[in-house]
Design goal:
This protein is mainly beta. Helix content is 11%, strand content 39%. The protein contains three helices and 16 strands. The strands form two sheets. Strands 1, 2, 3, 4, 5, 6, 7, 8, 9, 12, 13, 14, 15 and 16 form a 14-stranded antiparallel sheet that branches. It has a two-stranded antiparallel sheet with strand order 10-11. A hairpin with a 2-residue loop joins strand 14 and strand 15. Helix 1 runs antiparallel to helix 2. It starts with 26 loop residues before the first strand and ends in an 11-residue tail after the last strand.
């Protein structure tokens, strides 16, 4: 399991440098597209890419192309096909750019087929209004300073390195803590892209129960009030609903300065009882 120096910090919304010897990147630029690296591969099927890697790449591209000077506030990604390891092309489109809002879309294309689609909403900064509204006063606890690249805690327990296994197969509320996740080799990862990577762990932190993780998410959404500060991001389960093999779940995103976002996913059971058309 990889560790890193906990001293790295930065101002809100600014990318930071992470030691490339400690945290592996997910992709490298390849001509006008990208090629996946071993760290991007997932566990659902051999030769396919993990959701966090896919989400991070699309968010990094959208943020770089359309987010300059704006606040990234919303992210949604539809994961309707597996992305194969190897070369990927990303196509982007500006949907709307106005005085308050900018909306853009991106998709991953392999063999002339769209396999993943994402959208991002950016806002221009505005004066902070007066008044107060309800907000949960209980802040999730971050990991101690000697954290790992990915650690998890259950119930009131302490964080421990996450490597899967039956120790996490409990009905307790889960939270996880990530450090230094990055997208592209040799390039700084934007805070928005890092948050998008972690957002795809919502299904893990909400769905990990007595039977392990029994659903696979087909999408992920993220809403941010601010960017994460530094390269540490936590995720705590808020709700998990499962009816007829279809799940809906949400989690709070936080760092050492408190909550800054909300994530949600929908998913479907992975058991042998799941049936559907072979092609669509």
């Amino acid at each position: 399991m990889l560790t890193r120096d906990a001293a790295a910090r930065d101002a809100p919304g600014r990318p930071i440098e992470v030691n490339p010897q400690q945290v592996s990147p997910q992709f490298i630029r390849d001509g006008e597209g990208f090629s996946s690296l071993p760290a991007a591969e997932g566990r659902w099927a051999p030769g396919t890419l993990a959701g966090p890697a896919v989400a991070g790449l699309l968010a990094q591209v959208l943020d770089g192309a359309f987010g300059e000077g704006l606040v990234p506030a919303r992210w949604h990604c539809d994961l309707f096909r597996m992305v194969r390891a190897g070369h990927v092309d990303v196509r982007t489109r500006l949907v709307r750019s106005g005085r308050r809002i900018r909306v853009a879309e991106a998709e991953i294309v392999q063999n002339d087929t769209t396999v993943v689609r994402a959208s991002a909403t950016f806002y221009h900064r505005a004066p902070q209004p007066d008044g107060h509204a309800w907000s949960d006063p209980d802040e999730p606890a971050p990991a101690p300073s000697n954290e790992y690249r990915l650690s998890m805690a259950a119930g009131d327990g302490d964080y421990a390195p996450f490597e899967g296994g039956a120790r996490w197969n409990t009905p307790d509320r889960k939270r996880l803590w990530t450090v230094g996740w990055r997208v592209l080799d040799g390039e700084e990862t934007t805070p928005f892209a890092r948050a998008a990577m972690v957002s795809d762990c919502t299904n893990l932190v909400t769905g990990m129960g007595t039977g392990g993780v029994q659903t696979i998410n087909g999408d992920v959404s993220m809403a941010l009030a601010r960017a994460p500060i530094g390269d540490e991001i936590g995720l705590e389960a808020d709700q998990h609903l499962l009816v007829d093999g279809v799940s809906a779940a949400s989690a709070s995103m936080f760092d050492r300065h408190g909550r800054f976002g909300v994530c949600s996913v929908t998913g479907v059971a992975t058991g042998s009882a799941v049936h559907g058309p072979e092609k669509s």
